[in-house]
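Homework help board

Subject: predicted structure for assignment chain

Our instructor gave us this sequence and asked us to write out the predicted structure in token form, then describe one feature. I got the tokens but I'm not sure how to describe them. Can anyone check?
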Amino acid sequence: MVNSTVESTAPRPTPLADDLRREIEQIEDRIDTLRTLIQNCRKAITVSRFAVGAGAVGFVATLGGALRPDATLLVFAIAAMVGGIVWLGANKSSLRDAIGEMHAKELVRADLIDLLPWQTIEPLDARERHHDPETGALD
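My token output:
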């Protein structure tokens, strides 16, 4: 059973602490969104590298004679390389921006956490025992 006197004497959060907690929650939500964006950018970078590689293989194979010379295949190979390069660059840029913003948000979150008031939390069984300050013994 919870001791009601302990609950009533516990420090109540201040409006400032509540505002800080809300702001920290908003920052953590943004950090989670950025983590998802970073994962998606990394996946897109992998796909774009594959597109560049596949386009290059198709291009070289067509010009080298390994594949039947076909203008359509050559156009698709060049399109895959160019598209892959463009998509790679866009996702690398987005990745770099997202990582930078995430690190900045993490620093702000850490600063806000440092501003929160500290609370002492006692174990449940410590409420029933008494500490003798002279001997350091528990009753």
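Reply (TA_rk): Your tokens look well-formed. For the description, you could write something like this. The two ends are 21 Å apart (CA to CA). That's the kind of observation they're looking for.
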